[in-house]
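Sample pair:
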Amino acid sequence: MARYVAYFRVSTEKQGKSGLGLAAQHSLIERFLSEGDEVIAEYVEVQSGKNDERVQLWKAINHAKRNDAKLLIAKLDRFSRKVSFIASIMEQGIGLVVAEMPNATDFQLHIFAALAQEERRLISERTRHALAEAKKRGVELGRNGKVLANLNRQAADERAEVLRPIVVPMLEKRLSLSEIARQLNDQNIRTARGSRFHPQQVANIVRRMGKINVCSL
């Protein structure tokens, strides 16, 4: 039996009122809870993930401390986009539990957060530079499909590079595309669109890394 204080975050007031986003987070937490577990309180924050000023979060943390409970969140990306922020919460002396990643250790949470943060940084940097160059050439970005397609390709390349340290060791073990997809899903690593991996998506990543001929797997 475990005691939890649940914390939910939505980005906009509209999401908070409509339940969009909240419903999915509630569902994840409900599936995570075992018989006998108790959620003693719930706190909902309406705040952008880029903003670390979280009034409701600190209320949730203090509530958990007073009642010897753990802080329970649905998904790491609903919590924060910054490794430093996640690390600072872990240093508060309470257990941080992610419903989507129930077996993840503090070390693993740091790794997953670092991967996500670096991926966002690389994509943002590449996109910003590409847009600036296109603007110099007088390109109307919203009306030029080639420019947008190029940006998408660059983002996919960056995604492949972020996943390289994880995927390459699996390739070296000669794991099949299906097995690599399964292991990525087991580690709660998602595609750029937040979906589960399938063999074809792994094949696309491997091609971009230029590591091997996927036809041999």
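Strands lie at 3-10, 38-46, 70-73, 96-98.
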